[in-house]
Amino acid sequence: MEPGGDVALDIIVSNVVAVFRVRCHLNLRTIALEGLNVIYKPEFGKVLMKLRKPKITASIWSSGKIICTGATSEEDAKLGARRLARVLQKLGFKVRFSDFKVVNVLAVCSLPFQIRLIQFAKNNRPIASYEPELHPAVSYRIKHLRATIQIFSTGSITVTGPSVQNVATAVEQIYPLLFECGRALR
Amino acid sequence: MSPRVCKTCGGTDIDVDQSRGNAVCTSCGSVLEDNIIVSEVTFVESGGGGVSACGQFVSSDGSGYGATPNFGGDFHAGTGKESRAQTLQNAKRHINQLGHQLQMNKHCLDTAFNFYKMALCKHLTRGRKSTHVIAACLYLVCRTEGTPHMLLDLSDILQVNVYVLGRTFLVLARELCINAPAIDPCLYIPRFAQLLEFGEKNHEVSMTALRLLQRMKRDWMHTGRRPSGLCGAALLVSARMHDFCRTVKEVISVVKVCEATLRKRLTEFGDTPTSAMTIEQFMKADLEKGDECDPPAFTEGKRRERLKELEVKLSKKLDDMEDEVFSFQDEIDQELESSRPKGRYASNSQSSVQSDKGEEPEEEAELREAARVLALRQLTPSGEGEEDEEEEEEQEQEQATPRRRPSVAALLGPLPTAASLGLQDSIDRCLGDEKENQDDATSESGELDLNGIDDEEIELYLLNDKEVKIKTALWLQQNADYLKEQKEKEERIAKEKELGIYKEKKSRKASRRYPPIRANSADEAIEKMLEQKKISLKINYDVLKDLNIHTHTHTPEKATPTDTRKPTSTASPSSGRRTSLTPHTHISSLGKRLRPLVSAHPVKRLALDELVPGGVLPVGVPVAMPTPVVVVESGPVAYGEDPDEEEDEEEDQHCVSAMEMLGGSGYGCDDDDEGY
User: Fold this and answer.
1) ipTM of this predicted structure
2) Chain B residue with minimal CA distance to A151?
C-alpha cells in the first residue's frame, strides 16, 4: 500500500546516551580543580564535564563509571568518550577505556501528514496508550525492539531506543500503522 | 448424598427423613443415622407471641462478625484468610468513601471494588500506595461507564499529583487488559453547564456548546488537548451567544484550566472559519460539510519551518550579498541625509516589485506602516537613533518576512545584522566539522585508542598551575558550607572513637565489639561470654547473686539426681550468679524451641558417668576436665572438686533461675522443681 523504503523520512538523531568505565578510582576533587568546563557537586558525588568538540556532557563518578550524554551519533559518543578518557589520563589517573555501551538513542522524525490519535489508539489498543489529560501524544511501545515512540497529532514523532538501528527499525515498523490513521498528505 | 451402603445388610436403599432426623435402611430396617444435623430455617418465639427466624445477617462480601468462623482449626490458615479479608474490607471502605465524595452510584462502586479485587490477585497493589490504587480503580470505572469525572477531581480530593495517579491508572488499565474508551469532551458539558448556573436556558446552552465542540473536533483542535480546556472554550462562547456574560475567570474556576490555556483555545477557534459565521448561520450550518482545518500546532510548526527555510537560504546567499550590502550601507547613509520619506516610499515600491519571496501584500502593508511611523518620527531629528529604531522595527518585520533581495537601501540596514547572527552558528558548525576527525577504529582491550584525539586540544582542557590555584580558591570559597559540615562530622567521629562509644552507622552486623575472650575450655569461654553479654536488662543480677549463696550448700547432694534427668532442668528456685551459665542455660534462656539441642548433653554426661564407675574422684576429675561437658560425679564430693561442682551447680541453678526470671514456663521446669 505504501512503499517502506522509498519514503525518504528524515530521522534526526538528537541525543545519544552512553556509559563506559575507566577501571580506576577517580579523585573528583582533582578533576574539579584542574579541569576546564567542570562542575563539581559534592552532595551528589559527581563531576559534570562538558566537551566542546563532540558536544557532550559527561557525569563522572568516583568509582570510575561515566555517563556520556548529548552526542548526536553513536560514533560521536564514542569519540567523546575516548576524549574524555584521554583528559582523565592526562590528569594523572590510570585509565583504561572499557565497557563502552550506548544505552539510549533519541530520534525525531517528522511525517508529512497528520495523524488521528484517537483512531490510532483504538486500532492499536493494548500497545498504544493515549491519555489526553496527561500527555498530548500517543505512546507506543515495541517490546521486542525495546523502543518507545511518541506520536503527536501534527505528524512528528519521537523515538527512543537502545541503538540507532533499533530506532530506524521502529520507525519503519510504525510507518504503515500511522499511514492508516493519517489524515491527508499536505 | 453419595450412595450409602447399609452396614448390616449391604442394601443401598436408604431413606432419609429430614423431619425426624433419621436415616433408615429400607431393606433391613436398621437405623443408620439418628439426629441428623439439618440446615433449615428455624423459628423462635419472641416475647409478645411473635415468631421470628433464627440467625444473623451476614454481608455478602464475607466480612463482618461471625462471617469467618474459625472452629479452632489451624491458626496459620486462619490468619492468612483474615488478612486478605481485612485488606478487602479496608479497600471497600475507602472506595465507598471516595465514591460518595464524587457522588458515584452504587453500581460504579461495586465495579470499582471488583477492579480492586482483580488488581489484588495480580499483585498490582504491591509497592503502590493503597490510596493511589483505589483512586485508579475508581477512575477506571469512570472511564468505562462514561461518567463526567476527571482525573483532576480525584487528585484534588486526594491532594496527589495528577501524573502520579495517571501513571497508576495506566498500569492498572494495561495489566487488567481493560480498554478505557477515549475521553469525549462532550461528556463534561452537562456537568460544567450545571456548575455555571444557566438556569432555564441550561439545555440550550449545552446544546450549542456541543455543536461547537463537534465543530472543534472536525477542525482538529481536540487531538492531544485536555478535554476540559475545550469544554471551557465551547461553554464560554455558547454562553456569550445566549447573552450570558460569564467571565473567563468564572469559567476557569469551574473547568480547572488556566486562563492562558482558555485564551489560546479561543484564539485557535477564532482562526477557524467557523468563527466567521454568525450565530444563526452556525446553528443552521451542516457541521459535516466544509473543509477541515489543520491542527493549530501543525500550522504553527509549518510556519516555523517556512521561516527557517527562508533564513537558511538567506544565510547561504550572504557571501554574495555581503559586498553588495556594504555598498548599500553607504547608500543608506547618503539617502538618509537626503530627503527621507520620499526616498523610502520610492524604494518601497521598487522592493515590492523586485522581491521574490511570497507574502508580498503583507510585506507591503508592513512597509507602509513602518514608513508611516518613521514619517512621524522624523519630526524628532536624531539621525542615528532613528536609523536604529528603523532597523529594529524592520528587524522584527524581517523575522516575519525575510527578504532575499536587499534592494531597498533603508531596509537593507538591518539585513546583514540579522543574517550575520544566523550565520555565526552555521559558520561555527562548518568550522567545527572541518576540524573534526572522525575515527571509527576502536580497540576494546581497555587501552585508549588515541586515534583521532588531538592531544593539543586535550591539553586545552587542563588548567595550568596558576589557574588551578585560582580555581581551588574559588571552589573552596563556594563550597565552604559543605566542607565545614564534613569537617565537623569527622571531628565528631574522631571524638567518639576516642571515647570508645563510636558506633559505626553503616555496619549492620553486631555493633558491639567485646574484648577477645581467653579461656581454657569451651565452657569457660561460654561463661565469660555470657558474663559480657547480658541476657536481660530487667533482672537485678546482684540480687540473684545474693540468693545463690544460700542454696549453694544444698546443691552438691542434689546435683546427681538431676543429671540423669534433663540437664537444663535443675530446678533450684534460687538464682545464682548470672555469670557462670552453661551452654544449657544459654540455650534454655533463649526459648523452648532450642530445647531439643540441649538434649545432646545429657547423653554425654551419662556416658561419662558410666565410664567412671563408682565415681572414683581422682580419675573422674581428669576425665571431667578436658571434656566439653562438665560431669558431676555421683558419690561424695571431694573438697578439691568443689570449684567444678560449684560451677555446675551454679550453672544448673542459673539454668532455672534465668528461665524463671525470663518468665519461661518451660515444659520441664515444673518437673524439675518437684524433682529438686
Assistant:
1) 0.75
2) B224
